[in-house]
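Retro notes, item 3 of 5
We never archived the inputs for the adenosine-5'-diphosphate complex last cycle. Fixing that now. Sequence and ligand:
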Amino acid sequence: MAAAAAVVVDNMSEDQAMIELSDMTKVYNIGTIDVHALDGVSMSIHRGEMVAIMGASGSGKSTLMNVLGCLDVPSSGRYMLDGLEVGALSGNQLAEIRNRKIGFVFQTYNLLPRLTAQANVELPLLYGAGNDRKRRASEALDRVGLSDRTNHKPTELSGGQQQRVGIARALVKDPSILLADEPTGNLDSRSSAEIMEILMELNRDEGRTVIIVTHEPDIAAQAPRVITMRDGVIVSDGPPETLGQGATAAAGEAQQ
Ligand SMILES: Nc1ncnc2c1ncn2[C@@H]1O[C@H](COP(=O)(O)OP(=O)(O)O)[C@@H](O)[C@H]1O
Ligand SMILES: [Mg+2]
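Structure as it came back at the time:
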């Protein structure tokens, strides 16, 4: 019965990477100028990994996240996600994958200001979740420690609390991959630490694959694996203790 309903089926083997990029490029044309936002990126990420992506402003981090999240299509190269070639999928299939597998967390939270925390988290469930919607949104808010703020609107919440609502909204459809583009970029250090703690728990305790973009070396160093980008290419990839001077400098430039 499930087979008939599913447009896209998982056809992944155990040892296969969840995400595999081969020689990925993304070129934006602005008038007569080509901007090579991604200039040949190859890498794999396995299910259950936690990866931080660092690099100066303009190095291609958000472009990479948008491609990983199936929000944008690369100009060339191959993207395999759970054994499926993303480039071969239709718009509807891409939307289905985004919907089913991927949760997004944004730097500016992207909450609707007139809605309560509870209603913001229910939004992704508007179609199809039926009576379950309220319960699932409450559970997601509970998961990020906001059970006592469900009826607050965004302006009645601190930045850290708003980001926790953002994480709850990303979680409510139970995605296997969480993509967070500078999730602590607007937060003080204490709230940043709380948000990182939640993201690390979602990885460690629930096995979700978490990919986080950050400018801050201290934040990146909490991930077991750090990828550093410069000018659309990966310049280092490994545990944080292997980060060379170059990577630290590349991240530092962005902080100024
Ligand atoms: N929609 C777009 N149109 C044109 N150029 C873009 C677009 N998005 C990004 N770029 C360019 O691509 C490069 C990488 O951008 P981005 O991925 O946003 O970098 P980062 O997130 O690391 O700051 C930059 O030079 C940026 O100006
Ligand atoms: Mg960016």
